[in-house]
Structures are given as C-alpha cells and as structure tokens.
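Quiz preparation item.
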C-alpha cells in the first residue's frame, strides 16, 4: 500500500478517490496508470485524477456483459486479494475505531505486517488463535512465521 485515506461513511468512493489522489502532493511521480471500477466512471473522477497527477491515465475495469455469477475480472482481482489479506486482521474486519487516524494507523500496521511476513496463504483447516483484550482466545490476524 502506497497511500491510504480514511473518510466518513457518507463520502462516495468517487469523491474519496479524488481526495486521496490530491493528498499525494507528488510523492509518487512514477505512477502512470490507475485502475478503477465502474463506480468511478464519468468526468468528475477522471478530471479530478488528472488534475491531481497530470501524467496519470485512468482505466475503468468493467464487468463483462456476458458474465453470469462470479467471474474473475482482469486487474480487479489484485485489489480484492489485497483487501482480503488485510481483512485477516481482526481489528480491520470490523469498524471498531472511533477516529479516522486510529483506523489509518491500524491499516498501516496491517500493511507493514504483510510486507514483512509476505502474504503467504495458510494451510487449509488451520485456525490461528490470538488473545483478545479480555484474555479469551479468538480467531484473528495471522502472526508472522
């Protein structure tokens, strides 16, 4: 994860995406292409993205018209896989945080854990147990190793 922004629930993804790109302040000049889903179609997102990063090309990944049921979409599976890895952390699976900066901090910690340990799939049937605040054992975030 290069950059993240936590917003209120009433902020549309399209508007949040433009806000996210505008907070980069030239930190990642090497970005050339942005893959977005069909919710980000339209001039609002495209114009906001190109205003934030001039050399950025926005490509909308749309669902195939002939697809029925679950179909792996090109490029979109990368984002979905990453979100799935992050949701292994119990703290991120629920919206427990009262403040946006707390939620962002735990998102960064989970991302660091993924980078350090590598996102290795767990063996089937394996359940990882971690202690909770109350001392009971609950399924939770995968530990390194």
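Solution:
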């Amino acid at each position: 994860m290069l950059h993240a922004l936590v917003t209120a629930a009433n902020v549309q993804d399209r508007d949040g995406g433009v806000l996210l790109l505008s907070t980069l302040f030239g930190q990642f000049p090497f970005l050339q292409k942005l893959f977005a889903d069909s919710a980000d179609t339209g001039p609002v997102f495209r114009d906001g993205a190109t205003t934030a990063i001039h050399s950025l090309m926005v490509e909308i990944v749309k669902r195939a018209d002939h697809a029925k049921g679950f179909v792996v979409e090109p490029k979109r599976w990368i984002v979905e896989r990453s979100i799935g890895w992050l949701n292994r952390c119990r703290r991120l699976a629920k919206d427990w945080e009262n403040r946006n900066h707390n939620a962002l901090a735990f998102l960064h910690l989970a991302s660091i854990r993924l980078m350090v340990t590598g996102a290795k799939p767990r063996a089937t049937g394996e359940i990882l147990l971690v202690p909770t605040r109350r001392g009971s054992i609950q399924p939770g975030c995968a530990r390194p190793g």
